[in-house]
Request: fold
Amino acid sequence: MQTDIFTTLEELNKEIHSFRIEDETTLEAFRIKFLGTKNILKDLFGEIKNVPNERKKEFGQVINAIKAGAEERFLSAKEVMDASKAKNSFKDLDLYLPDDTAHKGSRHPISLVLSKIVSIFERIGFTVAEEREIEDDWHNFTAMNTPDDHPARDMQDTFYLKDSVTRLLRTHTSSVQARVMTSTQPPIRIIAPGRVYRNETISARSHCQFHQVEGLYIDEKVSFADMKQTLLYFAREMYGIQTEIRLRPSYFPFTEPSAEMDVYWGLKDEVDHRITKGTGWLEILGCGMVDPAVLTNCGIDAEKYSGFAFGMGIERQAMLLYRVSDIRMYFENDVRFLKQFHSVG
Ligand code: PHE
Reply:
């Protein structure tokens, strides 16, 4: 009986050392059989009660040594396997693959359109002028020939700062014209991109904040023809060399004469019909010759100098270029929307 149990132990020991561990599956089978919660060694430990007292000690030593041997075999097999796994994964590593561990962001569609517009004007000598979004009444309205009682003030619902009748969120980038003209003498050739605010109900077509780009050119003998040519150049750079424009008479307090510029967008599909109201033409900017009163307000000699100005909305053009029909998408910062934008080509 006693010899039997010692023989069993010996056989078990042989089995432990001859067990074929070839891969992860056989390693796991080994672990379950000899080291798991229900391993065969556990049952054998229970057999100690049948071992005569004088051999109990020996039995304990043998069985513990077998257990330690099983543990050692398991650990060394695992170590070999882990090492070869690491080596193989390194072998399969393609060092020429691009690193995709860091997520690269994309530029906001409004920024893309803005910088495209700015670069078109920079190529013909305009420089960027950036100014404050919190303006005063004078730069936003008064200097721009829009006095207190002028009906044009009602055209723009303005956000005034709390407890203030003179501080406001600029309603247009035309305030930058006043800022630049009061601090610089001509020649002036600036382009002013930025955010503007109007107290409008938020809907798919309008928002209480949006972006504009203002342009201002003041020098001696600047004519309406210069303006038209500059804007035609812009439209063709922006929308393609074949692009046609038209100027329609309009009214702005700070320009005289004033015009609105349309580009011919075409009527290729149903969306074109909808956005151009079936005409094929789309208004993209307001412009005109700077009213001499504005020059005088800003300290520029209106006898000597003349100039033109224009202002355009960015969201409108982004909506056209990207065919996004809801302006709110541009302000919600939904990553699923934003990550689709790379370039406007
Ligand atoms: N400021 C005008 C607007 O917001 C646009 C404009 C700018 C018109 C410059 C003429 C000249 O609608």
